Amino acid sequence: MKISGLKLRQSLENELGLESDRARELPVSKTAQEISILWGKNKLPDIGQEGFTALAKAGLLAGVAGMQKIETLLYKFIPEPSASTNLSQIKEDISALAKKRQSVLNLSRHRSTCVNAHLNVLDPEKLLERIYSAYLPPAELKKFKARSNALLKKDISNKVDLAEWIKNSHELLRDITTSARGDSLTGDESDFELGKGIISEKALPTYLKQWDAFLREKIGPDFGLVFNQEDSPLTEQLRELETAEMRSWTTIVNDMTEAKMDPQFQKRITSHSQTRTSTGNEIISSQFPVKDKTCTIQRSLTGLSKEFIGEFIEDMYAQLEIYKGNGIFSASMSMGRAVITVSLPAATKADLKQVEAWLVKKFY
Fold first, then answer.
1. Rg (CA), the chain
2. Which residues of 111-149 are buried (b: 16+ CB within 10 A; e: fewer)?
3. Residue 328: phi, psi to the nearest 5?
4. DSSP category for residue 240
5. What confidence tens digit (pLDDT) does each residue in 290-331 have?
6. CB 92 within 8 A of CB 269
7. Where in the chain does DSSP place strands (E)?
8. For the whole model, what pTM was predicted?
């Protein structure tokens, strides 16, 4: 088999898109089915498949944002609960039930971030220039674009060629992001603190591991390159979701009980409780253009911290993973007196990068 670097990049982009779709759809589908069982056990009024799917998407959101979304939907579906209906308990049960599937979304998001970083630098005329031109001198950018083009023109005929192409494409990403960071940075900063496309020195080995595993899995077999299943827990979890039978009610209850014992889950419950009891905080609203759309951000005047904003940004991207791209994208979080909500029509990841930049500039 013989393939050019350009064709290889296109193939990898397609493979990543298909995998990301599976990682979004399978957890939602399985979780919705199990919520319907939970719903029936509680003898609640039928809300149809769309209702169960909406609750599944809410349950798969990480942190307090997921709890809030579940609660909002429950009061929408059951506006006048009976005396025997404990919506708080049902909210916790749905969140605990969905917790088992959240790892799939987290693994997919992490892998997509690492793989896309490499694909970006292998698009010299568009993404490489758009992302890094603000950080690099023109002459240096030109050299990196030449290296990128050389990789795209490279013919790959065997496993040695492929292994070398994997290594060289990562070295291109490493050199670009090192130059973009500049000499003033220590290399210990997190990706979040650095800015779009700039990866910390400490994170680069993880990016290489994910890139190498992705190519070995998706392309490697065609060239006789060995792939170890242990290197891709995401692939194994997706396979289990596709082939596993529905969990029994007993298993679901046992898994929910175990999830509720997790300290992080208990912290989420406590934080959401504190949010609901907090009062008297004034909310202000800001609007700014994102391409040809208007982003609205509502936030409290007090209580917002760097850590809170950082967690909200993570949750915002998590919610984008299960957003279909239609209608208004909305992400919100509150903890104590801190409240923030972002609303944006037909949101994309690129749009949220602009929202993230606005938040970082405002609060960092």
1. 23
2. bbbbbbbbbbbbbbeebbbebbeebbeeeebeebbebbb
3. -85, 125
4. H
5. 888 888 888 887 778 888 888 888 888 888 877 777 778 888
6. yes
7. 3-4, 155-156, 283-290, 293-300, 328-335, 338-345
8. 0.73
Whether the pLDDT of residue 173 is over 80: the answer is yes
* CB-neighbour burial class of residue 278 (10 A; exposed 0-12, middle 13-18, buried 19+): middle
Going by pLDDT thresholds of 50, 70 and 90, the confidence category of residue 54 is very high
Residue 342 — φ and ψ, nearest 5°?
-120, 130
DSSP category for residue 202: T
- Token pair in block for residue 261: 């014992």
Vertex 323 angle, CA 322 and 328, to 5°: 155
> How far is 345 from 292, CA to CA, in rounded Å?
10
Residue 345 phi/psi, 5-degree rounding, is -70, 140
Q: 3-class DSSP state for residue 76?
A: helix
Q: Which of 301, 299, 288, 283 is nearest to 344 (CA)?
A: 288
**How far is it between the farthest Cα atoms of the chain?**
71
DSSP for 25-73, written as a single string: HHHHHHHHHHHHHHHHHTTPPP-HHHHHHHHHHHHTS-HHHHHHHHHHH
- Distance between start and end Cα atoms, the chain: 51
Residue carrying the six token digits 């599976």: 22
Residue 339: helix, strand or coil by DSSP?
A: strand
